[in-house]
Amino acid sequence: MQSSPPEPGIAGASLPFRLWTQEERQASLEEALRHWQSGEDVWVYGYGSLIWRPDFDFMERRLATLRGHHRALCLWSRVNRGTPECPGLVFGLDRGGSCRGVVYRLAGSQVPTYFPALWEREMSTGAYLPRWINCTTDAGTVRALVFIMNRDNPAYIRALPDAELLAIVRRAAGRYGPCTDYVVQTAQALRAAGIHDARLDAIARMLEADEHTLPEGA
C-alpha cells in the first residue's frame, strides 16, 4: 500500500527561522565587496526570479552558464512565497551539475545604490552564500556575483518527491504572492530566454495544467 505524502510545510514550519538584521546584511555586503574597486562595473548572475524581475538597471545582459551548481527548489520560503506556518519553496543553486542563466552588467556608479536592495532581497535570512564565480558566455568568461545555497542553513531542503513538492508549492503564498506563480513565472522566463531546464519545465507544466488541484492523498 502506497503511503500518502507527508503534510506539506510541517517540516519547514518546525525549523528555526530568523530574519537577518540590517547590521548582518550590511556586514555580508561589505565582505562581498571587499575587493571591489569603487566605480568598477560588476556582473550579477541570475538563475530564478532575477531573470524576470531584476529590480535594477543594467548596461548589458547575456546568457551564461555556471558550472558546479544547478537550479533546484531547495530553500524553504517563509516570507516571500510562504509563511512560517505554511512555507513555500524557492530556488537555490545547489551543488553539482551546471546551470544556464543570465548575467547582468551593472555600472560601477550604481553599485552603492542597487546592492543594498539586492542584499535585502536575496540575503534576508542568510540562506545564500555570495560568491564571485566565473560564468561562461558566448562573448567570453565573466566573473559574476552568484548567490549559492548554504547547505548549513536550516532552511535548506534536499530533493523532494514530485507529489510532495507540488503540494507544498500549490498551498503556499507569501508577501510576493503564490508560490505557484513564482515557479511558473520562472519557467516561462527561462523558455522566453531560450534556456532549457527539463526538470523545471516538467514541474511548471504540472502546475499550469491544474494549479488548484492537490496531488491525491496530500
UniProtKB/TrEMBL annotation:
<keyword id="KW-0808">Transferase</keyword>
<dbReference type="InterPro" id="IPR036568">
    <property type="entry name" value="GGCT-like_sf"/>
</dbReference>
<protein>
    <recommendedName>
        <fullName>glutathione-specific gamma-glutamylcyclotransferase</fullName>
        <ecNumber>4.3.2.7</ecNumber>
    </recommendedName>
</protein>
<dbReference type="GO" id="GO:0006751">
    <property type="term" value="P:glutathione catabolic process"/>
</dbReference>
<dbReference type="Pfam" id="PF04752">
    <property type="entry name" value="ChaC"/>
</dbReference>
<dbReference type="GO" id="GO:0016740">
    <property type="term" value="F:transferase activity"/>
</dbReference>
<dbReference type="InterPro" id="IPR006840">
    <property type="entry name" value="ChaC"/>
</dbReference>
<dbReference type="GO" id="GO:0061928">
    <property type="term" value="F:glutathione specific gamma-glutamylcyclotransferase activity"/>
</dbReference>
<dbReference type="InterPro" id="IPR013024">
    <property type="entry name" value="GGCT-like"/>
</dbReference>
<dbReference type="GO" id="GO:0005737">
    <property type="term" value="C:cytoplasm"/>
</dbReference>
<keyword id="KW-0456">Lyase</keyword>
